[in-house]
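Bench log. Compound arrived from synthesis this morning; before running ITC I wanted a structural hypothesis for how zinc ion sits in the protein. Inputs:
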Amino acid sequence: MAADEAGAAPSAQSVLSSVFGFDSFRGRQRDIVDCVVQGGDALVLMPTGGGKSICYQLPALLRPGLAIVVSPLIALMDDQVASLRQLGVRAAVLNSSLTPQAQRDIETRARQGELDLLYMAPERLLQDRTLAWLADYSLALIAIDEAHCVSQWGHDFRPEYMQLARLPGLFEQVPRIALTATADLPTREEIADRLQLRQAQWFVHSFDRPNICYRVAEQGAAKPQLLALIEREHAGQSGIVYCLSRKKTEAIAAWLADSGHQALAYHAGLSHDERQANQTRFLREEGVIMVATVAFGMGIDKPDVRFVAHLDIPGTLEGYYQETGRAGRDGEPATAWMHYGLGDVVQRRRMIDDGQAPDARKRIERRKLDAMLAYCELASCRRQTLLEYFGETLPEPCGNCDVCLDPPETWDATRATQMALSAVYRTGQRFGSQYLVQHLTGSETERAVQWGHDRLSTYGVGESIDAKTWRSVLRQLTALGYLEADSEGYGGLRLGPRAREVLKDGQGVQLRKDRRSQARKRSGSSAGPAFAGADEALWNRLKTLRTTLAGEQNVPPYVVFSDKTLSELVNEQPRTDEAFLAIHGVGRKKLEAYGEQFLAVIRAHMQGDDA
Ligand code: ADP
Ligand code: ZN
């Protein structure tokens, strides 16, 4: 798209509103677009949902020639292209699932200037054949999406991404823009190095996701709490439940289905077809819960996931942040909820120790797990700690995490800590929390007698504290570094690096009291637009129309219109084309394609024939 009817190049602002239907740029989108339009290289670091796509899609429309978008996953590319076509943008995917004829057709269209954006995987771009036909003409830009896939230490490492270092040599004059939602500094540096983007301009967006409410439940059975979360706060809404093992995802999915919810499992052990089918249902239908291992999620562009639940502690805060970031991409309220126990931590520890990674890497992984655990046991604002970890400062507590909303009480646990650490030490630093609790309360006699532990001064020394509190004490002491999980043998607890502060230096320890109940009492549903009465009827009619139109074209409903667009339609009730065009997410093309039908529904509603 080079010029409009008058022959003048359209401005970024006018394309933003006429094609994408947005009034204004968000954050630094404008600067990024300008940088790339002027031929500069850019490294864009923005959280999920921040609006990365515009940063290369808009320059692709403003610069002459074809834009190449490198992306790691076919599903991601298909979705993006479907969305772009809805906007009237000439986009296509080149991948190996196409017939040779279809591939040649795309090449022909590209050659004849009939394409603005072409998506492909890195290995496809770097094939000699592709390079040969691309060499013939000028490219608008090369965008490298999910750029953290080039990081060897990251969890999404893709060796093919390393080859992208060849791009500046192959396409000397073509601006490159790399984008990622990975927040940590070493990965950023690694991306810049490996993709030869040292000279690029960096655009670092805040990683805060203010619409996500972070919550951690550290006690009680997980299942009833998960069910309460779904039924009381997110009934009928889409969500993701992450589990550590494949077996557990299947068990939880089956149990949720039995409880009357639309739940599906997703893990790497399922056949390709089954995974594909479940993913498609999650994307296309409303209110599906995906119970998955971390194999699920990268490149899932679904904007209206209302909750992400973790039933096991993630291994790193980076992973946790990325996974929870899949909630609420549309900016509407969403929940990130986690349940964990000390057993998870021991299991994670063991996975690291038993893994094949070199020692240096294992040390890093252990440190990351410690940071994750410390986050779980916080007595201060979770968002402040998360952002701190990613190098940002939030001056005030956020007001939208469980600690801010329901501050835990603390108690002087110095004496209990001394007892616990002594018990660990005297029993030989090899027992797990269950035995230690029994030892401290003097409730296990058989093995205690057998090992002579009943004669130790720590046996029964803590009987005035109940077992539940002891478990909480041991968990918090582990999180704070007074104890550490030893994954050798039976996964016992041993003294941690801070133990001497208490045992030798006599420092005091404050711990949090466990909350009585984690179930939040909220008025109504926390997430998603809530309409009542006549508005609800209109909302439902608009949703039905959206589902029908999406079904006809075999695309997800949100590709037709987002929830935000629908709720603006309910609130504004536009009657004319101009008014419809002013709605968020409505550009020229969508007005043309859907305006009439949506306006008809609104008109009928206003005339009161909803019945
Ligand atoms: P990311 O790729 O960073 O996760 P997307 O590019 O998918 O994010 O954008 C996230 C959401 O924000 C999408 O629903 C998109 O339509 C919306 N969005 C992006 N830029 C703007 C903008 N300038 N104004 C309004 N909405 C926007
Ligand atoms: Zn907070």
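What the model suggests: DSSP finds 28 helices and 17 strands in the chain. The mean pLDDT is 88.
ITC booked for Thursday regardless.
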